Amino acid sequence: MRAKISYAVTAAVLVVYFVLVGSRGVMLIQSGTVITVTFGVAVLILPVIGVWFLWKNTQFVRRANALAAELDAEGGLPVDELRRTPGGRIDRDSADEVFARRRAETEAAPDDWRSWFRLAVAYHDARDTPRARKAMQRAIALHDGRTVDA
């Protein structure tokens, strides 16, 4: 729940920022000189890119959460079996062991979105965020019935 609140607050702050930057871009364009119009257009591009990125990221999070809810309803969410250090951090060797099992599971069933979801969690636990995201994107695509390139 804390993550959802943090995400919502961050998204709201970004939207306010995009509105402020966008209003400055409009003010520059309204000035009417070649330089200010050029800068105004350039300034307006930044909020557009930011809104697009925020939208795509929000869609990704919503789809991943929907998969988690479906997997939870099936009783298939991965159990947290990781050993932790006294400070609460995940033990690297433990994460590697779980990752190896999840990778083998995914190799055995490459078209099963559930195995890709669990692999994404294992990547995340191993602190490999880019691969975790790619694995989750693959799980989402497989769940939605879209073809996935290897």
Explain the overall architecture.
The protein has five helices and no strands. The chain is mainly α and 150 residues long. 77% of the residues lie in helices and 0% in strands. It is elongated, with a radius of gyration of 21 Å. 18% of the residues are buried.
Strand content: under 5%
The averaged pLDDT comes out at 90
How would you describe the shape?
elongated
> Mind summarizing the main beta sheet?
none
Total helical segments: 5
Task: Determine the N-to-C terminus distance.
Answer: 34 Å
Q: Percent range for helical residues?
A: over 70%
Q: Radius of gyration in whole Å, from Cα?
A: 21 Å
Structural class: mainly alpha
Keywords, separated by commas or semicolons:
single chain; 150 residues; mainly alpha; 5 helices
Produce the secondary structure layout.
Blueprint: H1 2-31, H2 34-74, H3 92-108, H4 113-125, H5 129-143
How would you concisely characterize the structure shown here?
Helix content is 77%, strand content 0%. It is built from five helices and no strands.
